[in-house]
Amino acid sequence: MYLQFVLWDLSKSSVSVEDLRGYLRDYAVEAYSQLPGMRLKMWFANPERQVWGAVYLWDGAEYMDGPARVSRAVGLIGYPPTSVSVFEVEAIAEGDSAYENLMALGRAFG
Fold first, then answer.
1. Interval 43-85: pLDDT, tens
2. Cα gap 106→108, rounded to integer Å
3. How far, in Å, CA of 44 to CA of 106, rounded?
């Protein structure tokens, strides 16, 4: 398995974190949920620092081209990610969470 971090510095973009939350609600969460080989994608933001990004968990490196088929982020933001990093997963632990399902959790869904 592979972990991928994608990060944008939004300081040069005309879109805000709130604009991108709409993109999540209206399109991205559903579109990414259909990608083969992607176990998880989690978006994150820090509006005060104008940072937007995502963390992916992939079944294998051969699936990591999936975002190119569905992403609209570069078009919305106006430029490619500021930083992209990929790591091999060493271990995973799943805790006893209060949330049975992670789908549609987060600030984008209110």
1. 999 999 999 999 999 999 999 999 999 999 999 999 999 999 9
2. 6
3. 9
Closest residue by Cα to residue 51 from 107, 105, 13? 13
What is the SS3 assignment for 21?
helix
Distance from C-alpha of 90 to C-alpha of 13, rounded to nearest angstrom: 35
Do residues 103 and 29 make contact, with C-beta atoms less than 8 angstroms apart? yes
C-alpha torsion angle, residues 95, 100, 106, 108 (rounded to 10): 150
Of 3, 1, 10, give the one whose Cα is nearest residue 80: 10
What is the reported pTM?
0.88
